[in-house]
Amino acid sequence: MFMLLTHSQPCFFSFYTNNINMASGQQWVLVEMVQAFYEAPAYHLILEGILILWIIRLLFSKTYKLHETYRLTEKEKEDLIEEWQPEPLVPPVSKDHPSLSYDVVTGPPSHNIIINGKECINFASFNFLGLLDNERVKQKALASLKKYGVGTCGPRGFYGTFDVHLELESRLANFMKTEEAIIYSYGFATIASAIPAYSKRGDIIFVDEAACFSIQKGLQASRSFIKYFKHNDMEDLERLLKEQELEDHKNPRKARVTRKFIVVEGLYINTADICPLPELLKLKYKYKVRIFLEESMSFGVLGEHGRGVTEHFGVNIDDIDLISANMENAVASIGGFCCGRSFVIDHQRLSGQGYCFSASLPPMLAAAAIEALNIMEEDPDIFTVLREKCKHVYTALQGTPGLKLVGVQFAPALHLQLERSSGSRDSDMQLLRTIVEYVSPTRGVALTLARYLEKEERFLPSPSIRVVVTIEQTDQDIQKAVSCIQEAASAVLK
Amino acid sequence: MARTTANGNLKLYLNQNGLKCEDIKRNGYHNRRQKNGPGTGVASRQPRQESFEQAPMYVAVMTYLGFGIVTLFGYLRDFLRAVGLEKCHLAQEREEQKDFVPLYQDFENFYTRNLYMRVRDNWNRPICSLPGPVFDLMERVSDDYNWTFRLTGGTIHNAINMGSYNYLGFAENNADFLKTVADKTRQYGVGVGSTRQEIGNLGIHEELEQLVANFLRVESSMTFGMGFATNSMNIPALVGKGCLILSDELNHTSLILGARLSGALIRVFKHNNMHSLEKMLREAISSGQPRTHRPWKKILIMVEGIYSMEGSLVRLPEIVALKKKYKAYLYLDEAHSIGAVGPTGRGVTELFNVNPSDVDVMMGTFTKSFGAAGGYIAGKKELVDYLRSHSHSAVYATAMSPPVTEQIIRAMKCIMGKDGSTEGIRRIHKLAENTRYFRARLKEMGFIIYGNDDSPVVPILLYMPGKVVAFAREMLERKIGVVVVGFPATPITEARARFCLSAAHTKAMLNQVLHHMNEVGDHLCLKFSRLKYSSCPNLHDEKDFELGS
What we know:
Strand order of the largest sheet of chain A: 4-10-9-8-7-5-6
Organism (chain A): Sander lucioperca (Pike-perch)
Largest sheet of chain B: 7 strands, mixed
Largest sheet of chain A: 7 strands, mixed
Largest interface: A-B, 123 and 121 residues
Oligomer: heterodimer
Pathway (chain A): Lipid metabolism; sphingolipid metabolism; Sphingolipid metabolism
Protein name (chain A): Serine palmitoyltransferase 1
Domain Aminotransferase class I/classII large (chain A): 119-482
GO molecular function, one term (chain A): pyridoxal phosphate binding
Number of helices of chain B: 19
Radius of gyration of chain A: 37 Å
């Protein structure tokens, strides 16, 4: 097309110059035009005629769009739709997938547990204080059942708030010596809902690499910037905080509205380590970052009165912005709670998704939790007993051949890892599984592998066997378990 | 059932249609309705009609005006607080942390501080009894304009409960019914203390899963401890990067959260609009993933059985047809519909006569119809096996409480008639009867109510913020507990009250509620409807239901 236009230039000129000359001739314009028309050679006229038509065509034709040729016709769409083959909804799971066949527990999962028909001593359930089969707790639950039935049939906002819930919240706040507490109906949903209630897009969260899965889900739901620091490594955390401080100096306007949080666990479920809370607090005030503390493993375990890591370190609980824990471990009920100052906690009553949009905790489970708190308050000695048992198990398991014990000595849920990896995660898991199967249930000690979703974890913890200490375990029980484990380890690992 | 009522429906529809064309400005819903048209054959299987009548123009104007006024007052009061003329009751940041970045931005809480705070006595009302058809509310007063509440110690006895999702009346405390639950509590205690994969897989969990699969007529099922988490923790196991989720615009937060956590791309189609859904499906499949244009790995359509704020039923037959045509997968959340609809309480698949195996993922909760807690996912064995090994909930969350499990088992056995009685079926019929009666009477009175005639969720449109509050308080005065919802749970101009019917409501209770509704409706001018519903005999006829089932 361009070629044609350049070609035609001379003709254009002749046409226009003709016209201009004619215009200057004023009155004779028409006559001259007609004359010129007659004088012009025929081929010229034909050529110009063709050119005029060409220009008109160009003017009135639609503009040429490049992507129009890409637009699919209905037919092509049909073909594509016909052709498309989706992946299956779920990939096939092989029948012998290790996490497919669950062990079946018949009867209560308490101290004496029946796994696949064999009675065992329970070293696997997080029933630290043995409250699962406590008669008082059961009686309270039954009394509640008689009055309220089972379900609440509604979220907290819509007639799902029972007097029992209000009582439990105020009891928890009292127990932890904080202004306010809020309960959730599921342990996992507690911290996973609390984090996104405060931290939004654009905010920054500093989080320990060993943080548990529900924290990870909370972080993901918040859509904030996540910065992982090495597990319990305060220098690494400070490095990140300093980096951020520099960043903030560059853009102070943005920094004024960017909330910053540190999220840590009290006792880490994945490593059985304790967080260095006093150091964290120093960093908190130095860099003005708020601290969220997840205490599912340490609530009802650490501290003289079982208040958790804050009591363990003698830290003022008001220095922690938010504490969250579940009531499924030490408390042996279901659900979770957050506590702290009203300024912080109250916000979740409208913004905690798991709080607002889920049915509230069945009253009988709340009543059981209240009774568990009663027992914990009446007899703080149970925490001392638990700590002694932990220490006992911790020392007894030291020096198991081929296995190393991970965790601090007062942690009630320890990990046994392979001293030397056999090369791959799968074979490590297989070795540990053989050890567990050697002991449980045939030799009467219930143990379990710590389970993870390998593809989903941000930093996948090393494979391990979980060893859970409860106050119901006698010295003989512990002796039996330890010798079983040692026997199994030397048989399997050789 | 469909056959016996089809004629009546058609008439009713035409009737409405005629009126619609003349009298009513078409709103979105009506337009969609006509596009999808019940004439397409599949839709005529829809047992009852859904209506979404639009309010007169002045209502919308007044609503905006109302919001405008309260917002202005909000600014005024914020100003008064800022200059110290009004005391601020909000909890304050501690002194030590005043120089931190503020935890909340001022504008974020404007709505809470100035609008919600004035009226929050209508939510979170504490109760101190069973959430049955009648309940006892704890009396509370506020001495500081709702900033704090004080319980007086008194109770409002036997208020009629129109708010709880107690569809089949299984929120009950009859000792005979609860005997097995009490036994299990004595035997097991209330907790489990471990996850399903580790050591928390109890025999009764497996018994329940077997029962759920039987009830739903599918191959297999898995249960979880919290309904909300059933969605938010399992959707990420099913879809991920490179997958597309097509989600109804009114889906519940838990579905949205699950979709967001999955990492899949989410596109939202208009509520129950098959045209919008099909367009999206065609577009998505033919153009592939954005930017890379690779074909999608899989496409998952997420819908609910009954939408809890609209009372509308999913257009299941059409969706199943679309899903088959475009090879997408279907995720059906039956939180409100399982137990509550269908001749034997098996939810929307039964109501629409859709084969459950055509729905790839059947999800539901036990909180509502079963009077317990938790949720399930059911479907093909491969699906459930995959979830058993890959669900977040199976690996990281504590297993379901034994007494709660037993409650579900006993309720489900009762619905299925496995307890040797006809109690379950009686309740299902009673709920359907109550639903129709209540909806028909409200329509006659001239209220605008949304949703399907079969849905036990009955939203009554109140529109103006002032009326919402007045309505809730006035009903409480008359000892009726209602749920009101407004922005942000609904569109800003469509604040509403929501009634949930129950099989446990007696006719006398419903009549009492209706009587008060009539009075309050006149008193507060809530009867916005301009449609004239003659008392259509079809709506009262319980016989056709019996015949069909």
